[in-house]
Amino acid sequence: MTMRCGPLFLVASLLVAAGCSQGTEDSSLVSEEAWSPAEITDPNDVLDEARADRDAERYETALQKHIWYHENALKHRPSLAGVRLSFALSDWQQLANSYPPAREKMQAFRERAEGRVRTNHDGTDAFIEFAALNRYLEEQDRTIDLFKWLDANNPSLAERVYTVAQPALVEAEEFEICGKYVNGVEQYEWIAQGFRISRESAANQSGEEERIQKSARAFTFQSAQLVAILANTGRTEEAAEIADQALQEWSSDQFVAQLHDAKNGIAPAPIY
Questions:
Q1: Are 95 and 62 in contact (CB under 8 A)?
Q2: Among 27, 51, 94, 257, which is 20 to 30 Å from 185 by CA?
Protein backbone atom coordinates (compact mmCIF):
# COMPACT_ATOMS: atom_id res chain seq x y z
CA MET A 1 0.00 0.00 0.00
CA THR A 2 1.14 3.57 -0.65
CA MET A 3 1.35 5.91 2.30
CA ARG A 4 2.15 9.55 2.31
CA CYS A 5 3.46 11.44 5.28
CA GLY A 6 1.84 14.41 6.88
CA PRO A 7 3.64 17.64 7.70
CA LEU A 8 6.18 18.08 10.37
CA PHE A 9 3.31 18.66 12.73
CA LEU A 10 3.42 20.48 16.05
CA VAL A 11 6.94 21.76 15.55
CA ALA A 12 6.47 24.35 18.24
CA SER A 13 5.33 21.75 20.78
CA LEU A 14 8.25 19.50 19.97
CA LEU A 15 10.69 22.35 20.42
CA VAL A 16 9.15 23.34 23.72
CA ALA A 17 9.31 19.74 24.92
CA ALA A 18 12.91 19.43 23.80
CA GLY A 19 14.01 22.84 25.02
CA CYS A 20 14.68 24.90 21.91
CA SER A 21 18.10 26.37 21.31
CA GLN A 22 18.48 30.04 20.53
CA GLY A 23 20.44 29.48 17.32
CA THR A 24 24.19 29.87 16.95
CA GLU A 25 25.71 31.78 14.10
CA ASP A 26 28.25 29.90 12.01
CA SER A 27 30.74 32.13 10.21
CA SER A 28 30.90 29.65 7.33
CA LEU A 29 27.18 30.23 6.66
CA VAL A 30 26.99 33.98 7.28
CA SER A 31 28.94 36.25 4.95
CA GLU A 32 31.18 39.03 6.22
CA GLU A 33 28.73 41.52 4.74
CA ALA A 34 25.66 39.80 6.18
CA TRP A 35 22.52 41.90 6.40
CA SER A 36 21.44 43.02 9.88
CA PRO A 37 18.49 45.23 10.86
CA ALA A 38 19.28 48.70 12.13
CA GLU A 39 16.83 48.25 14.98
CA ILE A 40 15.06 45.16 16.28
CA THR A 41 11.39 45.49 17.09
CA ASP A 42 9.78 42.25 15.99
CA PRO A 43 11.68 39.56 14.04
CA ASN A 44 8.51 38.91 12.07
CA ASP A 45 8.92 42.37 10.55
CA VAL A 46 12.14 41.07 9.01
CA LEU A 47 10.27 38.06 7.63
CA ASP A 48 7.65 40.37 6.12
CA GLU A 49 10.44 42.43 4.53
CA ALA A 50 11.97 39.27 3.06
CA ARG A 51 8.65 38.43 1.40
CA ALA A 52 8.40 41.94 -0.01
CA ASP A 53 11.97 41.76 -1.32
CA ARG A 54 11.24 38.43 -2.98
CA ASP A 55 8.12 39.79 -4.66
CA ALA A 56 10.14 42.77 -5.89
CA GLU A 57 12.84 40.37 -7.20
CA ARG A 58 15.45 41.70 -4.75
CA TYR A 59 16.45 38.09 -4.28
CA GLU A 60 19.85 38.44 -2.60
CA THR A 61 18.47 40.94 -0.09
CA ALA A 62 15.57 38.59 0.64
CA LEU A 63 17.99 35.71 1.17
CA GLN A 64 20.09 37.70 3.61
CA LYS A 65 16.96 38.49 5.63
CA HIS A 66 15.94 34.84 5.71
CA ILE A 67 19.40 33.93 6.97
CA TRP A 68 19.20 36.60 9.66
CA TYR A 69 15.75 35.39 10.73
CA HIS A 70 16.83 31.75 10.87
CA GLU A 71 19.88 32.58 12.99
CA ASN A 72 18.49 35.33 15.21
CA ALA A 73 14.70 35.21 15.58
CA LEU A 74 14.76 33.02 18.69
CA LYS A 75 17.27 35.28 20.42
CA HIS A 76 14.64 38.01 20.38
CA ARG A 77 11.45 35.93 20.64
CA PRO A 78 11.81 32.28 21.71
CA SER A 79 8.10 31.82 21.04
CA LEU A 80 8.86 31.93 17.31
CA ALA A 81 10.34 28.41 17.39
CA GLY A 82 7.44 26.96 15.45
CA VAL A 83 7.26 29.80 12.91
CA ARG A 84 11.01 29.59 12.29
CA LEU A 85 10.75 25.97 11.14
CA SER A 86 7.44 26.18 9.29
CA PHE A 87 6.15 29.42 7.78
CA ALA A 88 9.62 30.97 7.55
CA LEU A 89 11.04 27.92 5.79
CA SER A 90 8.06 27.82 3.46
CA ASP A 91 8.80 31.41 2.45
CA TRP A 92 12.48 30.56 2.04
CA GLN A 93 11.52 27.64 -0.20
CA GLN A 94 9.44 29.98 -2.37
CA LEU A 95 12.47 32.24 -2.73
CA ALA A 96 14.61 29.21 -3.66
CA ASN A 97 12.20 28.37 -6.47
CA SER A 98 13.23 31.63 -8.17
CA TYR A 99 16.75 32.05 -6.80
CA PRO A 100 18.93 28.89 -6.66
CA PRO A 101 21.47 30.36 -4.18
CA ALA A 102 18.67 30.39 -1.61
CA ARG A 103 18.29 26.62 -1.95
CA GLU A 104 22.05 26.18 -1.65
CA LYS A 105 22.00 28.11 1.61
CA MET A 106 19.13 26.00 2.95
CA GLN A 107 21.19 22.92 2.13
CA ALA A 108 24.19 24.40 3.94
CA PHE A 109 22.14 24.94 7.09
CA ARG A 110 20.82 21.39 6.72
CA GLU A 111 24.39 20.04 6.59
CA ARG A 112 25.29 22.04 9.68
CA ALA A 113 22.32 20.58 11.54
CA GLU A 114 23.28 17.05 10.50
CA GLY A 115 26.80 17.57 11.81
CA ARG A 116 25.41 18.65 15.15
CA VAL A 117 23.20 15.57 15.34
CA ARG A 118 26.10 13.24 14.60
CA THR A 119 28.27 14.88 17.27
CA ASN A 120 25.29 15.15 19.65
CA HIS A 121 25.74 18.91 19.95
CA ASP A 122 22.22 20.05 20.87
CA GLY A 123 21.23 16.84 19.12
CA THR A 124 17.46 17.02 19.68
CA ASP A 125 17.10 20.60 18.49
CA ALA A 126 19.46 19.94 15.60
CA PHE A 127 17.44 16.93 14.42
CA ILE A 128 14.22 18.94 14.53
CA GLU A 129 15.86 21.62 12.38
CA PHE A 130 17.36 18.99 10.06
CA ALA A 131 14.00 17.29 9.50
CA ALA A 132 12.21 20.60 8.91
CA LEU A 133 14.75 21.68 6.30
CA ASN A 134 14.48 18.30 4.58
CA ARG A 135 10.74 18.65 4.39
CA TYR A 136 10.95 21.98 2.56
CA LEU A 137 13.86 20.79 0.43
CA GLU A 138 11.72 17.73 -0.41
CA GLU A 139 14.54 15.41 0.62
CA GLN A 140 12.95 13.46 3.45
CA ASP A 141 15.02 10.41 2.60
CA ARG A 142 17.83 12.28 4.36
CA THR A 143 15.74 12.36 7.54
CA ILE A 144 15.21 8.61 7.33
CA ASP A 145 18.91 7.91 6.71
CA LEU A 146 20.00 9.99 9.70
CA PHE A 147 17.38 8.46 11.96
CA LYS A 148 18.60 4.99 11.00
CA TRP A 149 22.15 6.13 11.82
CA LEU A 150 20.92 7.27 15.24
CA ASP A 151 19.14 3.95 15.73
CA ALA A 152 22.47 2.18 15.25
CA ASN A 153 24.76 4.68 16.97
CA ASN A 154 22.76 6.75 19.46
CA PRO A 155 19.48 5.01 20.30
CA SER A 156 18.77 7.30 23.26
CA LEU A 157 18.74 10.31 20.93
CA ALA A 158 16.76 8.30 18.37
CA GLU A 159 14.12 7.72 21.04
CA ARG A 160 13.91 11.45 21.79
CA VAL A 161 13.47 12.47 18.15
CA TYR A 162 11.37 9.56 16.91
CA THR A 163 8.12 11.55 16.66
CA VAL A 164 9.93 14.08 14.47
CA ALA A 165 11.11 11.35 12.09
CA GLN A 166 7.84 9.43 12.19
CA PRO A 167 6.05 11.11 9.23
CA ALA A 168 8.98 10.45 6.89
CA LEU A 169 9.32 6.88 8.16
CA VAL A 170 5.61 6.21 7.57
CA GLU A 171 5.79 7.61 4.04
CA ALA A 172 8.62 5.18 3.29
CA GLU A 173 6.73 2.35 5.02
CA GLU A 174 9.60 1.83 7.45
CA PHE A 175 7.29 0.16 9.94
CA GLU A 176 9.86 -2.15 11.48
CA ILE A 177 11.92 0.72 12.84
CA CYS A 178 8.75 2.59 13.84
CA GLY A 179 7.80 -0.42 15.92
CA LYS A 180 11.00 -0.09 17.96
CA TYR A 181 10.16 3.43 19.11
CA VAL A 182 6.43 4.08 18.91
CA ASN A 183 4.74 4.17 22.32
CA GLY A 184 1.08 3.93 21.48
CA VAL A 185 -0.62 4.84 24.75
CA GLU A 186 1.86 7.54 25.78
CA GLN A 187 1.99 9.07 22.31
CA TYR A 188 -1.80 9.15 22.04
CA GLU A 189 -2.11 10.85 25.42
CA TRP A 190 0.32 13.52 24.23
CA ILE A 191 -1.72 14.02 21.05
CA ALA A 192 -5.03 14.16 22.94
CA GLN A 193 -3.70 16.55 25.56
CA GLY A 194 -2.47 18.92 22.85
CA PHE A 195 -5.92 18.82 21.23
CA ARG A 196 -7.67 19.58 24.53
CA ILE A 197 -5.38 22.54 25.19
CA SER A 198 -5.97 23.88 21.67
CA ARG A 199 -9.74 23.63 22.07
CA GLU A 200 -9.66 25.36 25.43
CA SER A 201 -7.50 28.19 24.11
CA ALA A 202 -9.86 28.65 21.15
CA ALA A 203 -12.93 28.98 23.37
CA ASN A 204 -14.55 32.42 23.21
CA GLN A 205 -11.84 33.68 20.86
CA SER A 206 -12.29 35.33 17.48
CA GLY A 207 -12.72 32.64 14.84
CA GLU A 208 -13.38 30.00 17.51
CA GLU A 209 -15.00 27.45 15.17
CA GLU A 210 -12.22 27.76 12.56
CA ARG A 211 -9.56 27.32 15.25
CA ILE A 212 -11.28 24.24 16.62
CA GLN A 213 -11.63 22.69 13.17
CA LYS A 214 -7.94 23.31 12.46
CA SER A 215 -7.00 21.63 15.74
CA ALA A 216 -9.34 18.75 14.93
CA ARG A 217 -7.65 18.19 11.56
CA ALA A 218 -4.29 17.88 13.29
CA PHE A 219 -5.72 15.60 15.99
CA THR A 220 -7.47 13.25 13.56
CA PHE A 221 -4.40 13.02 11.31
CA GLN A 222 -2.01 12.29 14.17
CA SER A 223 -4.35 9.78 15.82
CA ALA A 224 -5.06 7.91 12.58
CA GLN A 225 -1.38 7.80 11.65
CA LEU A 226 -0.55 6.36 15.08
CA VAL A 227 -3.27 3.71 14.73
CA ALA A 228 -1.94 2.78 11.27
CA ILE A 229 1.60 2.35 12.61
CA LEU A 230 0.37 0.08 15.40
CA ALA A 231 -1.70 -1.95 12.93
CA ASN A 232 1.33 -2.39 10.68
CA THR A 233 3.51 -3.57 13.55
CA GLY A 234 1.18 -6.29 14.78
CA ARG A 235 -0.25 -4.32 17.72
CA THR A 236 -3.83 -4.56 16.52
CA GLU A 237 -5.48 -4.61 19.96
CA GLU A 238 -3.62 -1.46 20.98
CA ALA A 239 -4.56 0.15 17.65
CA ALA A 240 -8.25 -0.64 18.23
CA GLU A 241 -8.13 0.66 21.80
CA ILE A 242 -6.57 3.97 20.76
CA ALA A 243 -9.04 4.33 17.88
CA ASP A 244 -11.92 3.95 20.36
CA GLN A 245 -10.41 6.55 22.69
CA ALA A 246 -9.87 8.97 19.81
CA LEU A 247 -13.53 8.73 18.78
CA GLN A 248 -14.54 9.60 22.31
CA GLU A 249 -12.41 12.73 22.02
CA TRP A 250 -13.73 13.78 18.59
CA SER A 251 -16.18 12.12 16.24
CA SER A 252 -17.18 12.70 12.65
CA ASP A 253 -18.05 10.47 9.73
CA GLN A 254 -14.73 11.30 8.08
CA PHE A 255 -12.77 10.42 11.22
CA VAL A 256 -14.63 7.12 11.59
CA ALA A 257 -13.63 6.25 8.02
CA GLN A 258 -10.02 7.34 8.63
CA LEU A 259 -9.74 5.13 11.69
CA HIS A 260 -11.32 2.19 9.88
CA ASP A 261 -8.64 2.47 7.21
CA ALA A 262 -5.92 2.99 9.81
CA LYS A 263 -6.85 -0.21 11.64
CA ASN A 264 -6.32 -1.93 8.30
CA GLY A 265 -2.86 -0.39 7.95
CA ILE A 266 -3.73 2.54 5.68
CA ALA A 267 -2.32 5.84 6.97
CA PRO A 268 -4.27 9.07 6.43
CA ALA A 269 -3.54 11.48 3.62
CA PRO A 270 -1.35 14.46 4.53
CA ILE A 271 -3.07 17.62 5.79
CA TYR A 272 -0.73 20.30 4.40
A1: yes
A2: 257
